[in-house]
Amino acid sequence: MVFLKSVASVFLAVVLIFTSACTNVIFQPSHEQFIDPGQIGVPVDELFIKSGDAVLHGWHLPASAPIRGTVLFLHGNGQNVSAHLGATYWLPKHGFEVYMFDYRGYGQSTGTPDIDGVQKDAGNMLAWTARESCLHGHKLTVLGHSFGASLAIYATASYPQKQRLNGLISVSAFSDYREISRDALSRHWFTRLFKWPLSLTISNRYRPAAFISEISPLPVYILHSPDDTIVPAYHVDKLFAAALPPKYRVDLVGDHNDAFNPESNRRKLLDILHTLGKRTGACT
Questions:
Q1: Domain 39-176+205-277 class in CATH
Q2: Max Cα separation, the chain?
Q3: Which of 66, 127, 168, 182 is the most buried (most CB within 10 A)?
Q4: Which of 74, 68, 115 shows the shortest CA–CA distance to 93?
């Protein structure tokens, strides 16, 4: 009996350790400032907005050319906005102002990240930025990368005032929280042994593939590179199959974290932003 209790205790300890590791597959925040916008000549306005019990820090990158639209950028699961500035700093010179925020527990944002809280943050970022954009006469385009794109799918689908939005651009999104956890756990031989039971500890209530159809009638652009080693192509297949028209699939080049570096990828993104910016209708 004592032996069985010891085995059970060890098993419970292993489960707790690897459950924590599985959670860390999703949330990898940092408080370090990786890039100082001022030091690289990128003007930003500091922002702080309320999101439930957290205060979110963000940046507004004003357009440096005649304004053509407003973009909300939702970054991936690692580090913070200062590490993701490279994805957006080049958009203002093309006439697009950018808003980007950290989720709770990231960067200067308060709180501790968990899936419910971070999804709430994404929804509050969208609502705040759409309202701000509308006040200046522009509809908002939602742009998300990786984890941020998956958050953006649910946030856009559940946003009640879709007339304020141009549409969604999803870059390298995954379709399912448990499946992407299994993909990540499969990269190491030891965690591979436990990938199925551990993945079940991850909440799937905001599963992107289950909600992407609710973005319609807004356009959704699903961008992904065949060379992506982080998010396998089957996630994109599932998202595109589940989405309703108008929907578009666009191939990029490069690996997962290179999505906004190649000039060809930037041109494709700009073409989409210009297309979405031509959508008409009242922004109320």
A1: alpha beta
A2: 76
A3: 168
A4: 68
Q: What is the rounded CA–CA span in Å between residue 122 and residue 179?
A: 21
Residues 47/227, Cβ–Cβ less than 8 Å: no
CA distance 103 to 94: 27
Q: Is the pTM of this model over 0.85?
A: yes
Q: How far is 274 from 252, CA to CA, in rounded Å?
A: 18
Residues in the chain: 284
Where are the chain's structural domains? 39-176+205-277
Three-state SS for the chain is: CHHHHHHHHHHHHHHHHHHHHHHHHHCEECCCCCCCHHHHCCCCEEEEEEECCEEEEEEEECCCCCCCEEEEEECCCEECHHHCHHHCCCCHHHCEEEEEECCCCCCCCCCCCCHHHHHHHHHHHHHHHHHHHHHCCCCEEEEEECHHHHHHHHHHHHCCCHHHEEEEEEECCCCCHHHHHHHHHCCCHHHHHCHHHHHCCCCCCCCHHHHHHHHCCCCEEEEECCCCCCCCHHHHHHHHHHCCCCEEEEECCCCHHHCCCCHHHHHHHHHHHHHHHCCCCCCC
| CA 120 to chain CA mean position, Å | 13
